[in-house]
Design goal:
Blueprint (H helix, E strand, L loop, with lengths): L2 E7 L7 H11 L4 E7 L5 H7 L5 E6 L4 H7 L2 E2 L1 H6 L4 E4 L5 E4 L1 H10 L7 E5 L3 H12 L4 E5 L3 H11 L2 E2 L8 E4 L11 H8 L9 E4 L8 H8 L3 E3 L1 H17 L5 H9 L5
Helix pairs in contact: 1-10, 1-11, 5-6, 5-10, 8-9, 10-11
This protein binds NADP nicotinamide-adenine-dinucleotide phosphate (NAP).
């Protein structure tokens, strides 16, 4: 019987995960199928609980269900607990649900060089900012500072994770954009730099933009112009997906196949 996996979200129509995972299953000759599962919040819990008996071995979870996914799981990894949210669910043979957050580890994989002993600035205190800040702290960054447009959220997150918060972005070795600034194609580099307060920030060694778009994002344009090594959101997407893939199938993920699939036209 074909094993199933899918992505639960609302909306989920534009997800690139089905193309990425189905290409990976095909490359390894696995009889698996990954589908989109559009689910409103009111139906999230009962839908997830019905999946194991319907042939699902796992699922990804995206906006707005990541916090609910952690809450309903029977057990959770340290990353899911630390990030306060889950983007990957794995179903055991008895239907038990395990929650994991591969956004955290996927971000570190995309970074390639360890952040140990480096300073980091995380822009954004939403779900993605929290996962990234937790990962950087766990991996031994010398300092993790968090900035957020709504400063109360940065203060609260910094208190919870025992990291620093800054009222204005400050210079750091690693700068991560974990806000949605740059998602809309019309905003240029100048607008994004102003919205994120990057004008006073010294050039950093690495700039990561979690936002992914067809064209180069404004934050990556800023990073390149200031001489940083840049890591784009599609690489982070591939790396988080690769970790989910390995968790479900037990197989080494075919990274190049997954990269090609997400960098192609948005599809099924
Ligand atoms: P979220 O929880 O809704 O948080 C959104 C964040 O963006 C908040 O910090 C918000 O600040 C900030 N923001 C929104 N508009 C802003 C503006 N005009 N100026 C400054 N800050 C602004 O979303 P999320 O789940 O953390 O996701 C954030 C981004 O990361 C999204 O673009 C998402 O697609 C991307 N992402 C990518 C990956 C990947 O694999 N590449 C994984 C996860 C997320 P306030 O608190 O002030 O509203």
């Amino acid at each position: 019987m074909t094993a199933l996996a899918g992505v639960l979200g609302n909306p989920v129509a534009h997800s690139r995960s089905p193309a990425m995972h189905n290409a990976a299953f095909a490359a390894l000759g696995l009889d698996w199928l990954y589908v989109k599962l559009p689910v409103p919040p009111a139906l999230f819990g009962e839908t997830v609980r019905a999946l194991p008996a319907s042939g699902y071995r796992g699922a990804n979870v995206t906006i707005p269900h990541k916090v609910a996914a952690l809450a309903l799981a029977d057990c959770a990894t340290a990353a899911a607990r630390g990030a306060g949210a889950a983007n990957t669910l794995t179903f055991a043979g008895d239907g038990a649900i395990e929650a994991e957050n591969t956004d955290a580890g996927g971000f570190l994989d995309a970074l390639v060089d360890s952040p140990r002993g480096r300073t980091a600035l995380v822009l954004g205190a939403g779900g993605a900012g929290r996962a990234v800040a937790w990962a950087l702290r766990e991996e031994g960054a010398a300092r993790v500072a968090i900035w957020n447009r709504t400063s109360e959220r940065a203060v609260e997150l910094a208190r919870e994770l025992e990291i620093d918060h800054v009222a204005r972005p400050t210079s750091a070795d690693i700068v991560v954009n974990a806000t949605s600034v740059g998602l809309e194609p019309e905003g240029g580099e100048g607008e994004a730099v102003a919205a994120l307060g990057l004008d006073g920030v010294e050039p950093s060694a690495v700039v990561v933009d979690l936002v992914y778009a067809a064209a180069e994002t404004p934050v990556l344009a800023w990073g390149k112009r200031t001489g940083a090594r840049v890591v784009d959101g599609l690489e982070v997407l591939v790396r988080q997906g690769a970790r989910s893939f390995e968790r479900w199938t037990g197989r080494a993920p075919p990274l190049e196949v997954m990269r090609e699939a997400v960098r192609g036209p948005a599809s099924a």
